[in-house]
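Q: Please design a sequence for this.
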């Protein structure tokens, strides 16, 4: 789904209204989006100042890939939550954004990802121990909220203490977004920027190998013989932090919640671990972690029978038919498309695969042991996943 804001004088009919803040459950969100696709694939919401919601797969592809028409530099999320300057590369359009992608891409290459996988697997094993030893617990709070923090600390080459500080501030920021508390959003965002500034200042004083350290690579990069602006270096690291910490938590929670309710699929993946990679692709399609990424039309366009005027922002929520199929032909867009396709896709796939491999190989079964707690717009996913776990003998 994509959402497009609209001026006051062109509101959709009442039957076209869409409320993104309807209480989410693993079932309700999928049911709601299926109904909207069938009845009103381009709908209006009065939330967040008003925006259009686009639910069709082909329409979403169009907006993602036509970067000349649908830009990110005006507004890149619904609601607008960027208060502290631009954060490359997401907040920039080609070709300006390309400089930052060129710096980041080699740091998340397949070779780099493979080199850190043994360390990431050790983190997964360590984070599972309490759940296995007790026969259950809250996978969302105990594993999914911690394992990605440790993994991403290795990517940024910072100590765990700094990453946990960042995690705590993100918790405050996410709560502020969900509660629509603008003052708290600003305070939490500023706190995250201060931590990022500390990291950049440390790398300025003590550079690391730019082939494996993002902050050092950004500080070493040049355009026409000049270094990148320091505020843009800080903004880039701040943006990387957001997607590297928040998205994995929600995806892991949703994946494990879905597997917990499908013992046959669990058993199939235990018998055939070579299918875990394919399963992750389908689980990403089913439960993509973001619904509010935005674009802005820089000229008048028509989507469906709706006129979207120049300078109206567009936010994306990806469609999610709720049937799991290994043989699905359609390409999922959980990592986006076009020039802003996620540069960290290889890292994310490895991180998710390792987590599921360890959970499945070290258990004989796991099932839900209570209700899920779901995050709300603009993200999607399970934050609390209480499990009953039967560990393999010897675990």
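A: Design:
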């Amino acid at each position: 789904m994509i959402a497009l804001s609209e001026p006051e004088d062109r509101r959709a009919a009442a039957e076209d209204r869409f409320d993104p803040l309807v209480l989410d459950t693993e079932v309700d969100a999928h049911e709601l989006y299926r109904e909207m696709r069938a009845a009103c694939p381009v709908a209006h919401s009065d939330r967040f100042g008003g925006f259009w919601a686009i639910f069709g797969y082909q329409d979403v592809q169009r907006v993602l890939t036509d970067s000349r028409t649908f830009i990110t530099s005006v507004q890149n999320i619904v609601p607008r939550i960027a208060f502290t300057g631009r954060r490359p590369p997401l907040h920039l359009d080609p070709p300006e954004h390309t400089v930052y992608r060129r710096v980041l891409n080699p740091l998340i290459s397949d070779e780099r990802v493979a080199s850190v996988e043994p360390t990431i697997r050790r983190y997964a094993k360590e984070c599972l121990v309490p759940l296995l030893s007790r026969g259950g617990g809250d996978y969302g709070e105990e594993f999914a909220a911690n394992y990605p923090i440790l993994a991403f600390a290795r990517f940024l080459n910072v100590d765990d203490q700094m990453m946990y500080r960042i995690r705590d501030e993100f918790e405050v920021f996410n709560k502020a977004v969900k509660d629509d508390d603008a003052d708290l959003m600003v305070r939490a965002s500023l706190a995250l920027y201060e931590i990022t500034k500390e990291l950049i200042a440390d790398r300025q004083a003590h550079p690391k190998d730019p082939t494996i350290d993002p902050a050092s690579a950004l500080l070493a990069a040049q355009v026409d013989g000049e270094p990148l602006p320091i505020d843009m270096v800080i903004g880039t690291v701040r943006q990387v932090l957001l997607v590297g910490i928040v998205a994995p938590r929600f995806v892991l929670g949703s994946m494990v919640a879905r597997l917990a309710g499908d013992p046959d699929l669990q058993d199939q993946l235990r018998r055939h671990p070579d299918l875990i990679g394919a399963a992750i692709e389908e689980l990403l399609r089913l439960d993509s972690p973001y619904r509010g990424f935005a674009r802005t039309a820089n000229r008048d366009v028509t989507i469906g029978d709706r006129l979207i005027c120049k300078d109206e922002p567009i936010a994306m929520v990806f469609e999610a038919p709720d049937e799991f199929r290994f043989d699905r032909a359609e390409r999922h867009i959980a990592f986006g498309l076009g020039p802003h396709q996620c540069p960290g896709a290889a890292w994310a796939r490895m991180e998710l695969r390792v987590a599921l491999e360890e959970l499945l190989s070290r258990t004989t079964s796991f099932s839900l042991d209570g209700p899920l707690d779901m995050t709300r717009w603009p993200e999607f996913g399970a934050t609390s996943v209480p499990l009953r776990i039967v560990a393999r003998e010897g675990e």
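Q: Thanks. Anything notable?
A: The first helix runs from residue 28 to 39. The two ends are 42 Å apart (CA to CA).
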